[in-house]
Amino acid sequence: MQDVSLSPEGNPLGFGRMLRKEDARFVRGQGHYVDDVNLPGMLHSAILRSPYAHARIVSIDTSAAEAHPKVKAVVTGAMLEDLKLAWMPTLSGDVVAVLATDKVRFQGQEVAYVIAEDEYSARDALELIEVEYEPLPVVADAKHALDPDAPVIRDDLEGRVDNKIYDWEAGDADACDAVFASAEVVVAQDMIYPRVHPAPMETCGSVAYLDKVTGKLTIWTTTQAPHAHRTIYALVAGLPEQKIQVISPDIGGGFGNKVGIYPGYVLSIVGSIVTGKPVKWMEDRSENLMSTSFARDYHMHGEIAATREGKILGLRVHVLADHGAFNGVAQPTKFPAGFFHIFTGSYDYPAAHCKVTAVYTNKALGGVAYACSFRITEAVYLVERMVTCLADELKIDPAELRMKNLLRPEQFPYLSPTGWEYDSGDYPRALQEAMRIAGYDELRAEQAARRAAAQEPGADPAAPLMGIGLSFFTEGVGAGPRKHMDILGLGMADGCELRVHPTGKAQLRLSVQTQGQGHETTFAQIVSHVIGLPPEDIEVVHGDTDNTPFGLGTYGSRSTPVSGAAAAVAAQRVKDKARVIAAAALECAVEDLEWEHGRWYVKGDPSQGKTIAQIAMAAHGSLELPEGVEGHLDASVVYNPPNLTYPFGAYICVVDVDPQTGSVKVRRFIAVDDCGPRINPMIVEGQVHGGLADGLGMALMEVIAFDSDGNNLGGSFMDYLLPTSMECPSWELGQTVTPSPHHPIGVKGVGESATVGSPPAVVNAVLDALQIRHADMPFTPAMTWRALQGRPMRP
Ligand code: MCN
Ligand code: CUN
Description:
The chain is an alpha+beta fold and 795 residues long.
């Protein structure tokens, strides 16, 4: 594997550092996003949203808005009911209102839709719509959603008498209870993973055009899964699928925010049907923060059992999951709590059980999103907090306790107590590497010296409190296989097509969709790695359902594990076919050919050979090919992954807390990631940097809180704080490389790893500094200060 340094001489063949191909347009401001789509005669639109979290709609008067000179149409839920479009399915089999008809169920819910000549008129006209609401009691706190007197939020669903969505369990409860009953030590801890938001730079939007002559519907939209969206539009609107084209141009970040289908997308289609014109809908920042997929909102009770020496025996957990007013979670159907049941983490013990109770509340829908890996974020936070609490209880160094319990390399493939088969790993090595980079022993010595100094008479009361936090994570990314994993019945496999043109330049068509991850670069590198064409000669096509094969899209860090495997297999097929063609051209037997990167040659006579480009020309020419071999040089693959890939990592965070203000400074952050071989180490590092910033943000700043009336208190960037470079330290990265045994080129996903792994490291560091067993994130200065005073925490 080469790791060619970035150089002006050109790009590496295959794996290695290479500047992103897409940056040529991005750094010139030439990216093309949904809001850059402008069609002749295009109209604009805006959505009226509910100011109440829970209220009956008594009446809606749209007459003044309709009279606005620039308004073309006003749409209400009642009109959609006539079209049978008032409700649509969510990704988890619930239904959600496109426009509210009977009630509004969260603040920010869609109530009416205005289409006008320009965006400003559309927004002005929203203010002319008169809605009479009758406010209802609100469920703002998941802990009270199941109270006997709680109002039933989803009275639209037949036979509903309460707010429970489901109870779901994994693991062996009896075996787990037996272990806990006889364990020497049991530590219990409640913790909340607060509601946070992916907040991509570009908000969500779409431009829809239904051409009434051809019957073709074209939708330019912010989607991480164009093919799945197309199928769902076909099912919802009853339009023929071959007449629907979903185009996802450049996307300014997704982070899970663009997996689902939002009412706004459907409304832009309705707008085009009603007006006969293309209609654009783009939400603003507050709409994005208030109404599109939030993440987490898990209230967890964990219990960990161990021997006095620190051997972990079992872990059990009960989760209260706040799903908001509609169950809109995006995850494989069989797993209502996503992959949360991977919560046993990276350690070796047999007893585990979890129960997840999900409830409706008067909040926006969502539940996954924000680099969630289908809830592995919550799982890793739980186990890494529990292990740290156990270390505190046993007075054992948290690194030592982890080292004692980590799975050993010879245990792989490892079947976890909740049924996951971890593919490969060398965990102790990764933790040792992180401790080496950190200088762990010296850090602990410094901390001890500082603590001792603080006890001296006349010690400086403003001296920072130093904390060291660890986390070790195992991720499972790359969903399917399709037998076990589907979304709304669509199996999780991905297609890929590779065409090598006569002149030896290639085109690779993907079913996944990049939102900043650099697929145009890394997928070209995958093909280059296998067939030896330079990456710049391989054009990656994605994000247009008319021009790419079907597949489930980009989320859960699945692109490289699934679609990347498809690309590698397609390239391998091209290479195999090239061998047959080379044999015909060189008039020798296939077995007599030897491969060197990019070229087949005759064994023993390297001068007699054909490059892939030469073979491509021959494949399209008049060369006589053997029986059964078709001309041209291309391949088409559907890859159904046999298992997830299991990347892992060891993170160490060092913080200094100001005891007088509660402000937390992250002094150092060491991240050792193992995602198998790195296709493009620069891109992997960028993914890790981004994820670490996310994790730091969640641990220290980000939370979408609600008041008791269900008012969203995080609806703008004034209240919903995101980290900037000012809060981030200079990340210190390391790596180990453990290939996946089942992936054709051994790679594992990495896109969400750092977001999954870093929050517990930061939280563990802050609590270590405060010398407190537990307090809930985010550790804003106020929250940290309050924790220091021993006061109860509140958001
Ligand atoms: N890669 C690599 N070597 C590996 C593994 C990955 O070079 N061993 C490269 C990949 O080829 C790809 C990138 O790293 O270019 C991320 O790959 P992967 O882990 O397969 O993740 P996906 O491409 O499926 O991206 C999804 C993931 C998710 S789910 C979220 S959320 C998130 C993340 O990516 N959203 C992002 N990172 C993001 N980065 C940006 N800039 N924008 C987002 O919206
Ligand atoms: Cu869960 S956020 Mo990413 O899978 O798109």
